[in-house]
Amino acid sequence: MSFLNPVYASLTILLELSGIALAMRAILIARTPQSAIAWAGVLVVLPIIGIPLFLVFGESRFAGYTLASASSSGPLHDAMQSIIRHLDGYKTTFRGIFNEPGRMAGNLSRLPATGSNHVQLLIDGAATFDSVFQSIDEATESIWVQFFIIHDDRLGRTLSDKLICAARRGVQCRVLYDQVGSKTLTSSWAENLRREGIAVETFVTNRQFGRNFQINFRNHRKLVITDSRIAYLGGLNVGDEYMGWSRRFGPWRDTHIRIEGPAVAGFQLSFLEDWNYTTGEIAPLRLPSPSLTHGGEATIFPIASGPAENWSICPAVYLSTIHCATRRLWIASPYFVPSSPLFYAICHAAIRGVDVRIILPRMADHILPWLSSFTYYPKLREAGVKVWRYEPGFMHQKVLLADDDMVLVGSINFDYRSFMLNFELSAAVQDKKFAADVEAMFLADFDRSRPENLRAFEDGSLLFRLKCRTAALMSPEQ
Question: What is the domain range of residue 369?
Answer without folding.
Answer: 313-477
